[in-house]
């Protein structure tokens, strides 16, 4: 008889339950290796001991048990998100000392278990605190493999399979952006991806800069970005010699989107001073409010004044995969010269995984190539276009592709689309819940992304009219309620001020673990912890 997937799962579950009963909490559990193995040392493992097969396998299997228990706890709604300790207390609970003589294997396993005991479970369904969170198991499996393969991504020679995966995945992402051809690279985070865009833009406009430095410019370069942009954009100006005064902040509207008429006014103002506006950063999904700058009108201004258009979609990029949410947010994205897109945010790829894409091919290489003779020989056995290492300003590069490729294999484009739609639906559900519990919560704005900004209203403020006085009081509640959450350990939601308002909560839906009952839990828990404030 044919069985359904659920039948199989239920059968497996009762089998597992029968084996283990209720799972023991990591905190109470001893990860005791066989005594003989436990007292051995690293010198009894490969490669120090050529016959270390049994000891190595015993130790790794024990470690795997620790890791799998952490995965169970991360997904167990009855487990806490964190066991908060102040730094001075934490120091007493851990043994962080570097010993003269190396410690036995059992101690290393105990160290691993203790480390995870006090680690925040960022993949827990009640963790709403960060843009990069969740624990995607396929991506995690990929990261395990990556660590085991332990290679460097600079040449095909030593990473043949991973280099080809990089080329296939990045080409697919450019196709999703809407380009034919182009070039891309993975970078250590969105901040560095934005830096690559800046470098390529300057190189494109002033090819001599690479050799001549400032002398190649003639006049002051100026870049533009909204006042809601990620701070890494401004740091490009500091790092690349423009100075932050020449990273012009364009005002944003109530929703946090760049005001395009202001952009044009500020461009003209700088041109009138004899300066060279050359780069505009358009944010697709701002870090705090999740706002999307209007791409098409910004692209028109870039065309008119001959400026490079960079889109920082580090945060919002995942929504390119959703037919439902891509428009109008990303309408016009194909007009960009470069796009930053972090799979380690909305797509749930394990940290870190960030990509930068260029419409023009060849720019990355001509901008960053230094032709180190000992790595990038021109007379190699194979087609050296696969030696990607000379496109970047790093030398060694971590393998960030395998876990993303494996995730794409597991989900397919349809699975990723469903994933993005689910995150947006959770944000929409929270908005709906906040609206129905108007007395307890105040929604600050209609979100465009999965950032939901709101205030919690304790009992004593529920009848007060919503004005500046009440906002000032609500803002004071945020750090106190956050502290209570952390001490209770039951959930985490972030708060911050912005330039239009004092402290407010910003809940993030970036973890595939979150379901509607977790959203309900968040609101109920805030009210449980905060109503007397
Ligand atoms: C998070 C973020 C970045 C920075 O990415 P990292 O990977 O943390 O360096 C850049 N831009 C935006 C809009 C972001 O939200």
Automatic annotation (TrEMBL):
Cofactors, names only: pyridoxal 5'-phosphate
Tree of life domain: Eukaryota
Keywords from the UniProt entry: Decarboxylase, Lyase, Pyridoxal phosphate
Keyword Lyase in record: yes
UniProt cross-references to InterPro entries, sorted A to Z: PyrdxlP-dep_de-COase (IPR002129), PyrdxlP-dep_Trfase (IPR015424), PyrdxlP-dep_Trfase_major (IPR015421), Pyridoxal-P_BS (IPR021115)
PROSITE patterns according to UniProt: DDC_GAD_HDC_YDC
Keyword Lyase included in the entry's annotation: yes
A Pfam cross-reference name: Pyridoxal_deC
Family the UniProt entry places it in: Belongs to the group II decarboxylase family.
Protein name: Glutamate decarboxylase
